[in-house]
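Researcher: First entry.
Model:
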Amino acid sequence: MEILQVKHIHKIYGEKENEVHALRDVTFSVKIGEFIAIVGTSGSGKSTLLNLIGGLDTPTQGQIIIRGHNIAALRRKELTIFRRRNIGFVFQNYSLMPVLNIYDNVALPVTFDKGKHVDHDYICELLKGLGIWDKRKRFPNELSGGQQQRTALARALANKPALILADEPTGNLDTSTTVEVMGLLKESSRRYNQTILMVTHNEALAQACDRIIRIEDGQINCAKGGETI
């Protein structure tokens, strides 16, 4: 079953002679539970694509359908609620709240959603599964980079989202921690039936995913390997 459909997406920044075509007619679909790598050179459009899928930006043309909802057509408030309940984000810089301890950082997406109560047993399960339960009362600046990235992953999973978007999640990590975090992402995908789209420039990491989508000059390129549909 497909969880995500990207249909003929175009993204243009600027106007007239200042127009920049960041994405051109991008189309692909993703099935539930897939772990997909999005690769491309710097400026190819991969991060723009991830931002559009995450509802952080709006396409100039085309549709992005997640769980049957065309998110480009949602009003701002509707999109905010939909994104909070269906999409988890893992960023390269972790984006943790420095004034909150690790437990509260992880629970934050749930507490934002006023209609939901925090499932403390689930948060506990996440923290123990990711090996940071003993760090739950610490603050982000007291943790290593790998521990902060584990916290960011736990936070992304806290709302049990259908889709996780990871933008260069291992970019600031050393080799051994990168391998560890990739293992955690794959385990999360399997254990919680999460669908993951990961932007990366690391070919070795991409090869470890279920499928590779390659983008060059804003377009999907099948020529260098990596099935796209």
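Researcher: Second entry.
Model:
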Amino acid sequence: MSADVIPIPRAALHEQVVQRLRQMLVESRIVPGAKLNERELSEVLNVSRTPLREAIKMLAAEGLVELLPNRGAIAVELSETDVLNTFEVMSGLEAQSGELAAQRITDAELAEIKAMHYEMLAAYTRRDLPAYYRLNAAIHSAINAAAKNPVLTATYKQVNARLQALRFRSNQDGDKWRASVKEHEQMIEALSTRNAAAMRAVLLIHLNEKRDVVIKQLRMTSQAAPQSAPLPTKA
């Protein structure tokens, strides 16, 4: 776990702690399954434990952190079954968001999404994964907002929180990252032409591709994990 010491303005202390800690979890600076060390995090974020504990509670509500009785908090580690079930729901939410957005998006909303898309392409060219992911996530959130369905948005945020770290790591595969950029270009085209069916289709493909990459990475990590040493046999 590593991060630069960042002074946080007192006026926005709570929100800043949540944002910074969320970023550390998503970018795996705190790896899945690791315990959140309050003393160390207090030093890294330059805050007292009171706002830190409140931030941890908020991130637990988002699904990024798990609170364990008498053991503190750990970064959530999803099983393969958890991932499959969550992506199954998320793909439907993304597809519905895209379909409604294509029907309801305003010119101003479209212009903002296009601007973020071009910034994201620049981050991709630099191979700046953290910047790319932040813009990518903002685009997906903007598409969801353009659907103008508050119930859909609330459900989307809740489910998506569980997948943020995995979606971030899925772009570490070079070929899949390139394919993801191409799919985003197709999203922009579908939104620009108000093609709801095309938007639904490309988001389903996009989420299923993410799911497949994540499952592959989970399996590779599991296979690479050190196995317990065999018990010594008697001579």
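Model: Note on the second entry: The mean pLDDT is 86.
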